[in-house]
Each structure stands twice: as structure tokens, then as C-alpha cells.
């Protein structure tokens, strides 16, 4: 089974760079699932991808990435949770299909996960889905058209993609009968 | 903002507690699990919060977070950390523990132990920080979320180990807080954990297995939180496997006719008698005959001595009316439709031992005998009823045979029971200018004598019997509920005679022109049909000591089987066999709407075979969505999906590959098997599933048991995939041996699946039996997975079992069988079984009235459909449709619903 990119330190390093934070945070991992831990000078540190990512955003003073209203904040929280429970949790083909299907429905009428603003949810979902999107066939990309549009948009968002491979999307639809 | 939670959905607890704790101004809606979910991403039983902006939150934790955000409490690193931990670590473990506790019956303490390290984690955090709450000295969203996950498992702090002092204190504090207490009261308290149980039971164990494992479980299967196997289980499974065919009992082949046998488990199964003058639809089929058939087949595979009888219910006004419409005699109508029924059930492969009918001399003898015994014991009352009589026709007129002017609105064509215009209920004698519908003559009011079954007097016999039957038998929850509410509302004498010709004659002076009312008569059909099968029928029906009786039906038939018929038999006092297990289904809907006879929407029994889809596929899909515990809906695209994913890609794929490997790589001969630890674990895993299958089927949880079959073949597919016998066969000696073992184990799994599948898909089972040449002596279900196809066994020709359903094909079927319906009323799976209600007109809300109206709606709908089918005049059709709509409106009124809104899709939760 292809190892799913575990939520990890590597991803947090990408995020740090994207946020323009100086390198200096120390990370460790915990348990079999290699959950990232951010070492802090005082206390036991912070555990968990969502938690650390939100902390970094605040550290970089880009709080708008966490949403500006209560509603937006809750929505961002919801998608971060979806990322760490569903996207990272599922590894079977079936799980992946469900995730893509769900996201495709959700993104039908939205530019970003939280609606019209780019948030941390988009960034982490992009990192989390990258290994899946790379492997999709042209037909699948076309089937999950909304996900593809969103993904393509996010990978071109300045500073997000960094060294990750660019996923190609074809502009013309090839499988017009796809449902 | 609107918060929708489903009763019994675990996550309901935390969102309600959070709403309370943060004093959020939410409008609470108790969702029906069948309603379309607010958010497409979440199943309907998960809470959903619809914000005023239209945004829907579907994650319970995000909903909780929102409530706190809305009153200005920003998340901190610490609350975030707790929420993430709860979602990724605690929640999956708590769900698994709860499942183990409720469904597998694990003791509370064991379940708590499974949470061990997670509980330690909370304890350590609380003590290290020295705070009263998880994220500081005040209560935050973190506390509510974590408490909400723990409470269902722990219930109270005493189930926590005493050394977790800080956790205990915190948990107790939380539980006592007003918000949490209220949430627990409204979600849980009335029926406590049973609510959760019903939720969990709707989910087969694999659903829990797909949840992520906690990292804390010491030994993990690759599949996550599946229960770990113990050494003993593995050893036992290996032993059982090795014993092979010798370990199996010989299949019991009863003599015909099947009669109870001393010392055996004797199972008598009935399914509700379908009313003869209708073609059953899919709902009827799953509601009784198919469910009963699956169970009967299972019983036979368990070597239980089983008799399954059913037949058509043929007497009553409805038959007379239908006969008049078709210009035939009632008997001719019955003959015609009995044959239609029998054909349909034959096509569906229903394994009746006998399919009879109620219009037989035995029916008369037995019904009259029961009547005489009731009379002799003083359980019948006589009363005078005023009724219209047509002197020309020499008969009292049943309500539907009278027309006249409505006494309320002066509508000219009001019927004897109600006015189609104003919808008011009418007592036929109140009609102005009444007319006999047959001869247009003027009827006169005459008094007529009727007999009533004295249910109030019989209640003292009924109650102790019910108590005992409930304590020892399996009654579905809806059957218990409906029965309880019937008794609670008070039993009244029920009329058992009618002024009709088509029925069993009443053997009493002064009642020569009368017949028994169908509801009294019809259940006696079970006895008379058995009597037509064997003259020793009393060995089944007057033998409660040796016989266990299972009644299958849809829920609208419950009172007849749980109250009225038992009262007749208890009153007749002749050592009758009374129902031990009453199995009632909920309703099956069609696509997004309802089965609708009026618009020809839905699939009816005689059309199923014209779809080109084999009977076994229909059986599989109907059983897969058997309305067990809640209504369910038939959907074409889902049928296609289940066929292509579960049958073709999962089950069919596995069985076919297992057989093909034997043929292709080993010349059709099962190879030697040298079991490794992995194989042994698989045997134990399969054994667990098999046991679960038995556990469920013994409780007649037919739908859930089917999941076990699919889960075994999933394990099988995975096993083949991981071991890749097609590659190893090309390798060295060791690899080839491995390929042999894997192939051998897989083909034996396929063999067992064929047997487990038999109750569900008999033809497919037979096909597998033929392809693998499974010896007939192995066609028996034991609790162990044994090697039935040992090394050296020759298999036959293996070919694919299932065909892919294509989108185009299914789309055209969907079009053919309708859709786009807007205002149709659900047709109950058993609609035709409902009998005309007694002459007394009930008050609104009265179940009798509702039943009566439901029957009328169904009948009128049917009539309209027939008109349309016969290409009747548009005007005529419109009139009849208008009548139908009116009836539906009345039905809604009677049910206490507003007629303005369409019938809600799901039946209201009782």
C-alpha cells in the first residue's frame, strides 16, 4: 500500500516558509502515527498538526488565515478536522473516493473551502491531498472537476506549492459523458 | 440558526451540551434519520448546524467551537489541542468501546479498560496543570467535547478507576453541570443507552472498523480498530479448521409433511397473508414473505425443524367490490389473483413449505370452532347496530355500497363512510337521500345484530401472556411499542361480524346472513392453511410446548397479531400455539418519494422479472436495505452501486478468483495447505464474523447479518491481494507452496460463503455449490469455519456469478418505473393486508380511522392506476384523482398532520 504522506513535520516546514516565519522551531514526533510535536521552551509543547498549524499562523500574525468571523473560524476548524481525521485517516481506494466525492460536492459553489477567502484549511488540505491528486488519472480529475479546479488554484497560490510537484490538469474535457 | 440532531446519535450529546453551556440561541430540531442530511458530507444521524447565512456545519466539534466563538470565547492553543486530540484519538476509541459494550455485550469495565491510556492522558494533564478544567480554571469548549465523548461509555464517575482522582472529579463536575445534565437527559435518559444502541446497531461492525485506530492499542491489525484476536481464539479456529467435514452435523432432511419432532427445535414461521386482490410491490415482498423466507432458510441450515406457511387472504368486501369491477365472481377473482401471487413468490424463490389460501373448508371449520369456543366461554357480546338495508337487493349495505347527500355540505355523491368533498366522516344512516350503489334503490334504516369480541374481558389473559412472550421471545422494538400503546389506549369490544356474503358464515341462529369480519377470520388462515398442508396441523398449532412461532409482517399489522388474534386464541382456550417472536419491519419507500400505486410509481412484484435483473439480485438488494429499525428507501442508482460494488467487485470477485486460482494454477484440484500465523489469524477473523452472523440471525437481524458475509469476502479479497498467489506461483518451491496455501484457504472461504449466502441468494449459492462441487453434506451452518474442501478436492468449472449493471440500463428502468412524483402517499409494505375497519367511526387520531383511511387511499390509488392503465376517459380519471387527493388530505388530518404539507418522508419516530 502506498504510504500516505503522514501529517508531519515536513508539511509544517512548508507552512513556516509560506508564512514567512524564521526557521527555529523544533519539532518532534510522537507515537506510531508520528504525530508532530512542537517543542516549546516551557511545558510539554504542542501536539497535533491542526494545533501547531494554527499556532504558527498566529505566530506569523496572519490571523485572517484562521477566518475572521465566528462562522468562518468554525468552518476553517471543521475542514482542518476533516483533513486530519478523514484525509489522513483513510488509506483505502474507497476512502479516497469518498473524500474526493465529498469535496467535489462541497466545492461546487465555492472558490475556497471556507467560501470566498483563502484560509489555512485550503493550505493544509492541499498538502494533504497532494499525494492523491498526483496519482489521479485524467478521467478521474475530470470526474472530480470542482476539486481539480480548486486544487489547481491553490497550487498556483503564491508560496504554497514550493518544491512539491506541479499536478497537471487538462483544460479541455475529454470525457464528456462522465458523470 | 437551526441545530438538527438525531435522537440517539452519539455526537448529539456534546453539541447540545455546548449549546447549553454557551447559551447559544439555537432552534433545536429533532431530525428524522431518514431526512435528507443538511450537509451532503455527513450522514443524517450526525448533528448539523445550519447558520443563518445558509452555511452548514457538520463536524460536531466545529459546531461546539462555533457556539463558544459566537459568545466571544476564542480558541487557544490548548483548546485546539484538546479538540484535535478528541477527534483523532479519543473519538475512535470511544466509539469502538461503546460498540463493544452495547453490541457485543462487553462489560462496562472492559470497555473502560480499552480507553485506559487515553484516560491516563486526561488524568496527567489535569494533575500536571493543577487546573479544574482541561484548558484552565474555567470551563471551555474542550471540556464539553471531551466529556461528550466519554459520557456514553462511562455514564458516571464510579466506572472510572479510583486512582484517576483528578479525572473522576472533573468528570463528575461536568456531569453535574446544568448544560451537560440537560443534554444527557434529552439525548439519553429516557431509554438510556438503548438509544445509542439502536444507533450503533444500524451500523455494522465494519463501520466502526473504518474509524481510525488509536495509537494506543498495543496490537494492531492492519485494518485499524478491529478487535484484536486472542491466542485462544486463534488456536480454537485452527482446531476447528483441521477437523474438517467430520466436525459438521449431518443436514437434517425432514419427512414431508414436516411435523414437530420431539427433542428438536421446532420452528413455525408465518408471513402476513397478502390480501388477494392486489399485486404485491417490493415493499410487501421485503416486509413479509422475503424476510420470512430468508429466516426459514437460515433455520433449515441450522438443522432446526422448520415449517414455513403463507397464503392469500381472500374474504371481504374488497374482494366483492373487485369482483363486481371485473365482472367475475369473488371466487374467480380469488383464483385469478392467488395464481398471480403464487407466481411472483415463485419467481422470488420464496421457499414456502405450503402456500395456501383462506377460502377453504378447513377455514370454515376452524374459524367456526374458535367462534363456538369463544361463545361458550362468554367472550362474545351481542349489540344492535343501525345500518342501511336495501330491500331490493336483500342485503345490508356496507358503507362503500351506499351513496347519498352529505349531511354537512350537501355534496351529492357522498359515500357511506365519508364525504369526498368536505372530508367529514359520516355515519351511513345520516346520509340524506341514500341510494344503494348496486340497484340505485332507496335503502331503509334497519337495526341489525352484531357480535363483538370482548377484548376488555380478555385483557386479563392477554397481559400475563404478553409479559411472558416478551421476556422470552424476540419482538422487534416497533412491535412492542405498537402493542403497548394499543393496550395503554384501552381495549374496546371489537365487532367480528359483517353483513356480507363473501366470508366465513357465522354459525349462530339469527346470524345466517352474516359472515366473520376479515380481521377475525384472516389470522385463522395460518391454521387452516396448515390444515390444508397436513391433517396433523394441530401438532403445530396446539403445541406451544414444542413449537416456537415466528410471525413476520410490516408494522401496520402488529395489533392484529399481538393483541386481537392472541385474544381470540386465549379466549378459545384450546392450548393454541401463540406467537413467540413477532418480527415487524418499518416501511420501504421508493426513490426520493414513495411507492405510489396511483401514479404507477415503483416496482411491483410481477414487473421485477421484466427488468432483466435476476431474482437473487432483487433479493440481495431488498434484504440489504430491509427496513429494520427504521424506514429505508429503494433507489435505482443505489441498486446499481450495490450490485457493482458489493456483489460484483467484492463478493463475486473473491469467490471467482478463489475458484479460478484452483483451476488455473492447480489443475482444478485444491492444493496442500501449510498454515502460517497470518492464515491462522484469518481463520480466527472469519470465525468471528461467522459468529456475529449467527448472533444477528438468531435475533432475526437479517439485514445486519448480510454485512457479515460481505465483510468476510472483503477479508478474502484483501488476503489474496496481499499474498499475490498469481506471482508466487511462478516463484521457487516455497513461493509455490505459499500460493497453494492461500488458494486453498481462499476457496474454502468461498465454500463457506456459499452456505452463508444461501438464505439470501439461493440461486447464486447453488451456482457456487456447483462450480466448486461443494459436497451436499457440507450444506449446513455451524459455528466454526472448517475446511470443507480439503487438499485433493476437485472443483468444477468456475465462471463469473454476477453481471455489471450499466448506468444506461438503470436509468431507463428508473424512467420506466416512474419518478418526479410530488404528492404521493407512501404505500405501506402491507397496505393490502390491512382489512376494512369496523363500522364504528373513530374520532380523529384514532388508529382505527387512520387504518381505514390508509386502506381507502391505497385502494383508490389502485383504482386510479387501473383506470390509467386501461386508458380511461380523462374526465373520469381526474374525478378519481380528485377523490384520491381528498382521501389523502383526510388521512393527514386523521394523523394529526397539516394537510398543506406533503407527507414527511420518514414516519415520525414513535
UniProtKB/TrEMBL annotation, chain A:
Part of a multisubunit complex that groups tRNA ligases for Arg (RARS1), Asp (DARS1), Gln (QARS1), Ile (IARS1), Leu (LARS1), Lys (KARS1), Met (MARS1) the bifunctional ligase for Glu and Pro (EPRS1) and the auxiliary subunits AIMP1/p43, AIMP2/p38 and EEF1E1/p18. Can interact simultaneously with MARS1 and EPRS1. Forms a linear complex that contains MARS1, EEF1E1, EPRS1 and AIMP2 that is at the core of the multisubunit complex. Interacts with ATM and ATR. GO terms for cellular component: aminoacyl-tRNA synthetase multienzyme complex; cytoplasm; nucleus. Pfam families: Arc1p_N_like. This is Eukaryotic translation elongation factor 1 epsilon-1. GO terms for molecular function: translation elongation factor activity. SUPFAM superfamilies: GST C-terminal domain-like. InterPro entries: AIMP3/p18_C (IPR053837), Arc1-like_N (IPR053836), EEF1E1 (IPR042450), Glutathione-S-Trfase_C-like (IPR010987), Glutathione-S-Trfase_C_sf (IPR036282). GO terms for biological process: positive regulation of DNA damage response, signal transduction by p53 class mediator. Residues 55-174 form the GST C-terminal domain. The keyword NADP does not apply. It comes from the Eukaryota. It is found in: Cytoplasm; Nucleus. The gene is EEF1E1. Its main location: cytoplasm. Keywords: Acetylation, Coiled coil, Cytoplasm, Elongation factor, Nucleus, Protein biosynthesis. Positive modulator of ATM response to DNA damage.
TrEMBL record, chain B:
Residues 72-200 form the GST C-terminal domain. Pfam families: Anticodon_3, GST_C, GST_N_5, tRNA-synt_1g, WHEP-TRS. The keyword Cytoplasm applies. It catalyses: tRNA(Met) + L-methionine + ATP = L-methionyl-tRNA(Met) + AMP + diphosphate. Its EC number is 6.1.1.10. Residues 207-228 are annotated as: Disordered. One of its GO terms (cellular component) is aminoacyl-tRNA synthetase multienzyme complex. Signal peptide: none annotated. Its main location: cytoplasm. The keyword Protein biosynthesis applies. One of its GO terms (biological process) is methionyl-tRNA aminoacylation. It is found in: Cytoplasm. GO terms for molecular function: ATP binding; methionine-tRNA ligase activity; RNA binding. Residues 849-905 form the WHEP-TRS domain. Keywords: Aminoacyl-tRNA synthetase, ATP-binding, Cytoplasm, Ligase, Nucleotide-binding, Protein biosynthesis, RNA-binding. Belongs to the class-I aminoacyl-tRNA synthetase family. NCBIfam families: metG, PRK00133.1. This is Methionine--tRNA ligase, cytoplasmic.
